[in-house]
Amino acid sequence: MNRIGRHLLSIDDLDRASIERILDRAESFDEVSGREIKKVPALRGRTIVNLFYESSTRTSSSFELAAKRLSADVVSIRSQGSAVDKGESLKDTVQTLSAYDPAAIVIRSPHAGAAGLVARWTPAAVINAGDGKREHPTQALLDVFTLRRRLGSLDGTNIWIVGDVLHSRVARSNILAFTQMGANVTVCGPPTLIPREIEALGCEAATTLDQLDEADVVYVLRMQQERMRDSFVPSLREYAERYQITTARLRPDQVLMHPGPVNRGVELSGEAIDSPQALIGAQVRAGVAVRMAVLYELLVGAPSLAAVAA
Amino acid sequence: MTENTDRLFHRPAEPAELLITGAHVLDPRAGLDEPHDILIRNGQIAELGEPGSLEAPENGDTLDADGIHAFPGFVDPHVHLRTPGQEYKENLETGTAAAAAGGFCAVIAMPNTDPVVDEASVLRALTDTATRRASVPVGFLAAITRNLQGTELTEMAELRDAGALGFTDDGKPVVHAGTLRKALQYQRLCGGVIALHEEDPGLSGDGAMHEGAVSARLGIAGIPSLAESTMIARDAALAGYEDARVHFQHLSCVESVEALEQAKAKGIRVSAEVCPHHLTLTDDMVRTLDSRFKMNPPLRAERDRRALVAALRTGLIDCVATDHAPHASHEKEVPFEEAPMGTTGLETAFAALFTELVLPGELELDVIVQRMTEGAALYGLPIPRIEPGQPANLCLVDLDARFDVGADGYVSRSENCCFHGRMLQGKVLLTLAAGTVAFRTPVAAGIPAVH
Q: For this structure, is B304 an active site residue?
């Protein structure tokens, strides 16, 4: 029985029950990650292709580890040095890789909708590992997983997402996932980096940290250097002045998160990163178990949780 | 103002000898809206008569058009025929065949080819090819600036002598007001309407769709409506100052309609066109991330669509233009942000407007028919009329026939049609262009099978 559909392209593909099902599955896989032999035979003999058109450390490595811990054979392809570099189109690359009969293709692309196109061109299950600035659904799932562990439930919690919302796929997937799980989401950042009509996603928008006190959770986004060049912010100094999350701006009971990699001293102060209220390390650890759960739910979807971790 | 007929080019063909019986003739300009026999002799409309009253010409066909509508042939003031240089997308033969299949009896081609039509030699080669390959008459616009760079003017007077109907840098705006001003001044010497693709690149940036709730959701950079409307306001002011004649291409948003209204109210000599896709679709379609819905200007919001329909009804927007923009499938089968801008439109223009606007009661059929022919007058061409003594420029349309767009392929060389897969109603059965049969359905004229 497979309840989450054939692909994972968007958080919109998942209702609350599906998200909970994946997270429950991830809990059992997390237990596996604590063992000395961190492997289960669930995907033995099956092939997972990781196709990354953008540099990525944590997403690609955690997908690779997740597949290996499920005993799958893994092929990881990066655009650099591959046929992609020689001008091969996405369609041809996907059709070529599909000839190896993979069970799943994990794709990261700088362009919105790339994962959806791949799903049209391959019989394999497709997992969106980031498509342009649109979505990064497994990041949102691991963030919900981490928060659920910390808070028990997201129902009624106030979550602030702070920073460059305009260019963030993490923000988009997280707004959808957090609200799906019952949280109230506010996005906050310089007016140049808050998309017009973002409220249509079901969140509120703020341009100062004045009301940050409302937040139970402060989720900070990465601020990229190149945004200065394009005049979205006049300087990183001015950005940090107004929007950097520091321990002084946080109450000790507010939970702090960040999808990584962090620009220490830009969007987050060093002390905030190292403070006990930061869940950044827990987010990374959750990545493997949650991606194992996604692969498992898409490819096996076994009826009982007990059968998996046993 | 019909001095420009000699600036249309097509392949000579045998003049039609034909009797069409019992067609419901709808030609609002001729005041006709009832069944007639239409006798065509030597490529001219010889006679109109009561149904059953006219005799077939010697050696001529008779078409039983009972229950079929006859409209004056449509004129499309904005198509991309991709010749020279991009014949893998479209050429003069396939593009004009697609036009004929859509009921068009004349089209006006844009100069953003490779090379750009910015020299008389390029234009002469094109008009020469058209006289051998075009199945409906084609008029050509030449570039305003060399290589569409927006800096140096083309030899506009020589291009006019070589047959240019007018000028445009379509696909790109003339960014510098000073450059456009000089072109408008020079128009006094050489004539020719100057048509403008209005877009402030500082506002559109690397946008790939309308800026709004959908672009916020998809994380795709947006093109705000005011990228278009502020340029319309600027260029209307320039045209007013220089008493020039300008035409605004493919209006897409309510703010542009307002800017146009102000310009016309001041008596500035401006006109405007709107595309079937902007009249019938919104940016909501882009949620599919199907690159067929990527065009410039982009599909906008419902309030924009409604404002465009209202402006077309009143005639504030003068005419319909398809902006037929073919692209090869390998160019469009890429992620949305990577895909080139443009949709084909010649084969679906009438059916899309009939199905999406006339059937639901948003716009009247006679308005559509008028606006699909009016583009001719803007470029100094005669508007086709179903009247004795006129050259045969008309189309026969079965308003009851439905078709699944693209199911039987396309006449155009490309298949990037934003109406692909839609069930549309109103099928063109026959097109007469410049007195010759330019298109005839494979099905015998009569009522074709309803798919």
A: no
Q: Residue A99 belongs to a domain with what CATH number? A: 3.40.50.1370
Mutation target vs A (from B223, B225, B286, B338; most A CBs, 10 A cutoff): B338
Q: Let me know if residue A4 belongs to a domain.
A: no
Q: How far is B213 from chain A (nearest CA, A)?
A: 5
Closest Cα of chain A to B215: distance in Å? 8
Mean pLDDT, all residues of chain A: 92
Residue A1 lies inside a defined structural domain of this protein: no
Q: Which regions of chain B carry the CATH code 3.20.20.140?
A: 72-378
Counting Cα atoms < 13 Å in the Cβ hemisphere of A116 gives: 23
Among candidate residues B128, B323, B398, B404, the one labeled active-site is B323
Residues of B in contact with A227 (CB under 8 A): none
- Residue whose tokens read 């309407």: B193
Q: pTM of the predicted model, to two decimals?
A: 0.94
* B280-290 mean pLDDT: 98
Interface A-B, measured as beta-carbon pairs within 8 A, has a size of 63
Q: Give the pLDDT band of residue A81 (cuts 50, 70, 90).
A: low
Report the residue of B220, B282, B336 to disrupt the A interface, i.e. the one with the largest count of A CBs within 10 Å: B336
Q: Flag whether residue A112 sits within 8 Å of chain B, measured between CB atoms.
A: yes
Q: Fold for B5-70+389-440, please state it.
A: Urease, subunit C; domain 1 (2.30.40)
Number of Cβ atoms within 10 Å of the Cβ of B243: 13
Range(s) of chain B covered by CATH 2.30.40.10: 5-70+389-440
Q: What length is written for chain B?
A: 451
Let me know if A123 is exposed, middle or buried by CB neighbors in 10 A (0-12, 13-18, 19+). Answer: exposed
Best CATH choice for the domain B72-378 from the list 1.20.120.450, 3.40.50.1220, 3.20.20.140, 3.40.50.2000: 3.20.20.140
CB contact under 8 A, A112 and B219: yes
Using DSSP, state whether B250 is helix, strand or coil: coil
Domain of residue A191: give its range: 137-283
Q: What is the DSSP string of A14-26?
A: --HHHHHHHHHHH
Confidence of residue B447 (pLDDT cuts 50, 70, 90): very low
Q: Residue B44 burial (CB < 10 Å; 0-12/13-18/19+)?
A: middle
Contacting residues of A for B219, CB less than 8 Å apart: 112, 132-135, 167-169, 172
Is the same domain home to A233 and A266? yes
* B285 and chain A in contact, CB less than 8 A: no
A120 found inside a domain: yes
In 3-state terms, what secondary structure has residue B349? helix
Quick one: pLDDT at residue A16?
Answer: 96
Here the ipTM equals 0.93
Kindly report, residue by residue over B197-234, the tens digit of the pLDDT: 999 999 999 999 999 999 999 999 999 999 999 999 99
Count of the separate structural domains present in chain A: 2
* Residue A165 confidence (pLDDT) above 80: yes
